[in-house]
């Protein structure tokens, strides 16, 4: 079976194989699993920012993309593997590349934000806010 779906950007998305063949029930179940996983990721991000020393990267769209990527990895691979690193490589490193990954402290200290641009230092967030006001 083969479907072509239009996307907002005008590109088409092909769905072939398992996803196209799944029953409505299976599709609904998959949707529920993803919603649950998305809720877990959002909760984790919210708590990490509320209780930790970092803020959110100051671009809501970028943050949302990373959250969606973490959710995809949680659903497909069972853990919140970093969405900006190759998952198969991350799997060989135990928990090091599960969000919040081991390198994020050093990355934030160096460039102001983690490599995925999900978390950022409070200073970086404040500086970006100042730039926007000018
Ligand atoms: S780079 Fe950022 S989003 Fe990616 S795993 Fe590390 S802390 Fe999480």
From TrEMBL:
<keyword id="KW-0411">Iron-sulfur</keyword>
<feature type="region of interest" description="Disordered">
    <location>
        <begin position="15"/>
        <end position="34"/>
    </location>
</feature>
<dbReference type="GO" id="GO:0016730">
    <property type="term" value="F:oxidoreductase activity, acting on iron-sulfur proteins as donors"/>
</dbReference>
<feature type="compositionally biased region" description="Acidic residues">
    <location>
        <begin position="16"/>
        <end position="27"/>
    </location>
</feature>
<keyword id="KW-0004">4Fe-4S</keyword>
<keyword id="KW-0479">Metal-binding</keyword>
<dbReference type="InterPro" id="IPR036644">
    <property type="entry name" value="FTR_bsu_sf"/>
</dbReference>
<protein>
    <recommendedName>
        <fullName>ferredoxin:thioredoxin reductase</fullName>
        <ecNumber>1.8.7.2</ecNumber>
    </recommendedName>
</protein>
<keyword id="KW-0560">Oxidoreductase</keyword>
<comment type="similarity">
    <text>Belongs to the ferredoxin thioredoxin reductase beta subunit family.</text>
</comment>
<comment type="function">
    <text>Catalytic subunit of the ferredoxin-thioredoxin reductase (FTR), which catalyzes the two-electron reduction of thioredoxins by the electrons provided by reduced ferredoxin.</text>
</comment>
<dbReference type="GO" id="GO:0051539">
    <property type="term" value="F:4 iron, 4 sulfur cluster binding"/>
</dbReference>
<dbReference type="Pfam" id="PF02943">
    <property type="entry name" value="FeThRed_B"/>
</dbReference>
<dbReference type="InterPro" id="IPR004209">
    <property type="entry name" value="FTR_bsu"/>
</dbReference>
<dbReference type="GO" id="GO:0046872">
    <property type="term" value="F:metal ion binding"/>
</dbReference>
<comment type="subunit">
    <text>Heterodimer of subunit A (variable subunit) and subunit B (catalytic subunit). Heterodimeric FTR forms a complex with ferredoxin and thioredoxin.</text>
</comment>
<keyword id="KW-0408">Iron</keyword>
<keyword id="KW-1015">Disulfide bond</keyword>
